[in-house]
Amino acid sequence: MTNNAVWYLGIDFGTTGVSAVLLNYSSGQRYPIYWLRELPTRSSQGSTSSSDKAIFRLPAVTYSGLGARELFVQLPGKSGVASSLTSKITSNQPGIFLQHFKPYLNITIPYYSPQTREWEPKLQLHSQQQVTLYGVRRAFQALLTKLTPKAAQPESDITVGAVGLKPELLKNALGKLEGVIIGSPAAWGDTYRLNLREALLSAKLVKQPEQIFFLEDAIAPILAGITSFNADPQNQGTTDKNPPTTWQDGTLVLNAGATTTELALVNLPEDLENLTYNDFGVLSWHYAGSAIEQDIFCQLLYPQLSQEQKQQLALPDDLELPLPAQPEQLKRDRLTLVLHSSPLGQALLKASGYLKLILQQKAEFTLNLSSHEWLVKRQDLETKVLKPFLKELNRQLNTLLVKTGISEQGIYQVFCIGGTAGFKLLSKWLQAKFPNASLIQDSDSPTGSWVATGLATLPLYPQVLNRNQHQYNDYFLLLELLRAFPQTKSDDSRRLRNQVARQGGNKILTFSQKPGFLTDKDSTSSLVDRPYSIQEIMQRLERRGLNTRVCYERLVRLLEGELPDGLVPSTDHTNLLAIASQQNPHYLQVAATGLFSEEENQLYHLNLQQQKRLWEYLDLILSGTYQQFEEPTIVKFRI
Q1: Which structural domains are found in the chain, ordered by start?
Q2: Which strands sit side by side in the sheet containing 261-268, from one edge to the other?
Q3: CA–CA gap between residue 429 and residue 387 (Å, rounded)
Q4: 142 and 13 in contact (C-beta within 8 Å)?
Q5: Which residues of 27-53 are buried (b: 16+ CB within 10 A; e: fewer)?
Q6: What are phi and psi of 504, to 5 degrees?
Q7: What is the DSSP secondary-structure string of 168-223?
Q8: What are 165-196's pLDDT values in tens digits?
């Protein structure tokens, strides 16, 4: 029966690691994924092997030697294990060591430049190291290969397993996945999802883009909770504090990790079959554990720095520290770049992470680094860092309560997950804010992830998927808007040749045969240079088969000049880009002006020059991708 089952894989890709859960759709059974490494040992008879301890979260850490095409994924191991990443880095071997790279995949889409013969853009990790965004995506792809049938082979360096599944059954399941569901921060758009899809397809977990689904990180734990996550500890993992097996009424999820704080609020119906995506209110706040660690440095350690220490850190004269509890992305990225460029800065940033944990247990602590010493107190942590965090969190929650129409007294479950949600001060504050709620404060279970379990559960509740976003992503809508106003015949011919070349064939197609191209007669009548009303533009899109009703607001934003987030890097990411990539002419041209200019009486005039630039740029970035966005993405769960 298991051999004929339909399998889905839920993947929780966090800043610090990856967790996964496998769903047998036929039975509804879920199987947490784990990894282990075969370690060489010595005996009197010679060399043998033994398995290291299984882990349920694969660290998001990769290393590649200089010029090497292979990326190595590292498991936490015993001290002294040969060929560990630590030994490679401390031995000063050249190469690229990547960790905490998830946010980079939200910057833009990597592409190969024929002019420079290099991948763009390049990121400036610190003063001595650059890496291409394509290399970052390959790092994620390397992590994903540890979820393929090859990783289930005994001879694999890192072996994948599943609680409750025999190795051969797991290998069979991973080899015929019906689909993959992966989490995403609510505020991160289709650029991030495009990059993740490309990595998933390159890793060959599935074959088609439509087999990849996205669900907000804060919604997923609710699906895990309402389906009795602890019903079968043998196969689904256990937690220290069991949540209710049935959730109803107002439910809040606070999912606070390293990069973002994700919030979801919902009134759960009695019949969960009636639960849909529109029932949820979601909010994403770009402030979490990593920013809190920065604020510990800024508020607790920086004021104690001597002039000598500041010189040792090589702090620029114009360096502006971010305000506590404020995203201020430009300032935070620059501060990270500065601190990572010196050994003392790296040590202080790492120490800030330890202080975040230590000061929850101790009233004060003396930090010693070489000959330097800092005294830090829990009271200062709470006053200068945590209370500003709670104040801003309160503002974000109030926004979500107003949006959903649910009152504070109407919340009956508050579910806190993620490393940043473990502060005792946060627990007390939540209990005071939501007096009628049961507080479920628990980190991930020892044998699984709440988020990954909820993601794997999505096929059992397909109506919770944001179908409109899945079917009509922002890149498809932009391309449809361009196609609705066809260019000259010569430009159409160029695009047609490019598409045929990408497909590797010589088949000759007429314009009317290819989606996105009109006949000569249509093209001639469409090239009249005049303003169009929004109704006329929508009619053009509807004639192409687009359901404008479900994506009307997003189309209006495109008309008003708001391009898809990450089509080119935003100014918020300037400090992450190498100087040459900051001056990339494609980025500057695409960001210079909108596709349309708005005139009086809500008329929109097409900017023909900008249309040409967008066509050329989209041709460039999509020339090397699996996803071409020529048709809407089909929503298909096996029912």
Answers
A1: 2-221 (3.30.420), 244-441 (3.30.420.40), 471-622 (no CATH)
A2: 280-285, 261-268, 249-256, 411-417, 438-441
A3: 10
A4: no
A5: eebbbbbbbebeeeeeeeeeeeeeebe
A6: 75, 25
A7: HHHHHHHTTEEEEEEEE-TT--HHHHHHHHHHHHHTTS-SSGGGEEEEETTTHHHH
A8: 999 999 999 999 999 999 999 999 999 999 99
